[in-house]
């Protein structure tokens, strides 16, 4: 009887052992499945490519093409897919429509030039509310909810151009004579143009013999820059300094000066470093230009977006560098 009871006890223990072993095996399999799922999720997370868009001021503008190319290269480094879009010609309304479209498409991030309208600011705020990060490039929209601005300190660069004009004119014989300045800006609406003009006025306004005779708009067009410059020079024939504050203005001014036969008495200063501008500086037809760093803007804007995807926190401003290009260094600047 005792043997029988012992056998039954052993059998019960064996069954219990088998049950526990089965439970262990089942738990092991479930844990393995969970670990595998987490690993797959991690791999998918690493492989996910954020779809971001850069909305340019003007699609084929050389300055914006340079920003776009640098941004595309940086996007590859950060495993992003960058889409470059913009109006074919300067058109703030089209920029606004593109911004609205990209918000509706629920892209992962937006890099965009700021436009100083209430509707544009409303759309930036709308994107942020929908958890779509927006970074302004080249021109800020500080009254919106944008995360950060990446670009030139436009007041500082405009002031620098004013300093360059003052220094150049002081070297001229009879520097105390009254000079008269004509200014061409790219856009009356763009905040960056207004800020450059403010900085320029602050610099030359401190000089008693450098009044600004007039300001005209080129609408980011070399042809319109030439027309605006010619009109200013005809209206104010005593202008002896012409300044352009957007990339195509200086070469447009040069065209007007040549048409009017005023090359020997009108000194030209510009902004940005188009190949035509650099060639004219080398020939002495344009005195100097303040150059921005569009490559730096494109790379830094994407880097900031990548940082946001990682931490969600950005400083409000990231100013890129600017410098003066004149005949002394035009042949040694990096392309």
UniProtKB/TrEMBL annotation:
<dbReference type="Pfam" id="PF13407">
    <property type="entry name" value="Peripla_BP_4"/>
</dbReference>
<keyword id="KW-0732">Signal</keyword>
<comment type="similarity">
    <text>Belongs to the bacterial solute-binding protein 2 family.</text>
</comment>
<dbReference type="InterPro" id="IPR028082">
    <property type="entry name" value="Peripla_BP_I"/>
</dbReference>
<protein>
    <submittedName>
        <fullName>Sugar-binding protein</fullName>
    </submittedName>
</protein>
<dbReference type="InterPro" id="IPR025997">
    <property type="entry name" value="SBP_2_dom"/>
</dbReference>
<feature type="domain" description="Periplasmic binding protein">
    <location>
        <begin position="53"/>
        <end position="308"/>
    </location>
</feature>
């Amino acid at each position: 009887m005792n043997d029988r009871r012992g056998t039954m006890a052993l059998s019960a223990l064996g069954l219990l052992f088998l049950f526990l072993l089965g439970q262990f095996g089942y738990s092991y399999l479930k844990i393995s499945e969970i670990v595998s799922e987490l690993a797959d999720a991690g791999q998918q997370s690493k492989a996910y490519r954020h779809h971001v868009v850069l909305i340019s001021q003007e699609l084929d503008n050389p300055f914006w093409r340079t920003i776009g190319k640098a941004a595309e290269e940086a996007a590859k480094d950060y495993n992003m897919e960058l889409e470059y879009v913009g109006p074919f010609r300067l058109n703030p309304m089209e920029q606004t429509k593109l911004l609205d479209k990209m918000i509706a498409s629920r892209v992962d991030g937006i890099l965009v030039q700021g436009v100083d309208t209430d509707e544009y600011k409303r759309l930036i705020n709308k994107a942020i509310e929908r958890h779509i990060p927006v970074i302004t490039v080249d021109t800020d929209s500080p009254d919106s909810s944008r995360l950060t601005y990446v670009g030139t300190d436009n007041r500082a660069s405009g002031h620098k151009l004013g300093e360059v004009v003052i220094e150049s004119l002081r070297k001229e014989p009879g520097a105390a004579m009254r000079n008269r300045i004509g200014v061409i800006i790219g856009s009356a609406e763009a905040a960056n143009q207004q800020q450059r003009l403010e900085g320029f006025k602050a610099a030359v306004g401190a000089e008693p013999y450098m009044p600004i005779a007039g300001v005209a708009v080129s609408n980011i067009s070399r042809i319109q820059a030439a027309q605006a410059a010619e009109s200013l020079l005809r209206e104010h024939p005593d202008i002896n300094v012409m300044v352009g504050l957007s990339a195509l203005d200086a070469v447009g001014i040069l065209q007007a000066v040549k048409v009017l036969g005023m090359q020997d008495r009108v000194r030209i200063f510009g902004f940005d470093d188009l190949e035509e501008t650099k060639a004219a500086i080398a020939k002495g037809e344009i005195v100097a230009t303040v150059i921005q760093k569009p490559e730096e803007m494109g790379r830094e804007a994407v880097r900031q977006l990548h940082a946001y995807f990682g931490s969600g926190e950005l400083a409000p401003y990231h100013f890129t560098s600017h410098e003066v290009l004149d005949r002394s260094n035009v042949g040694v600047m990096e392309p």
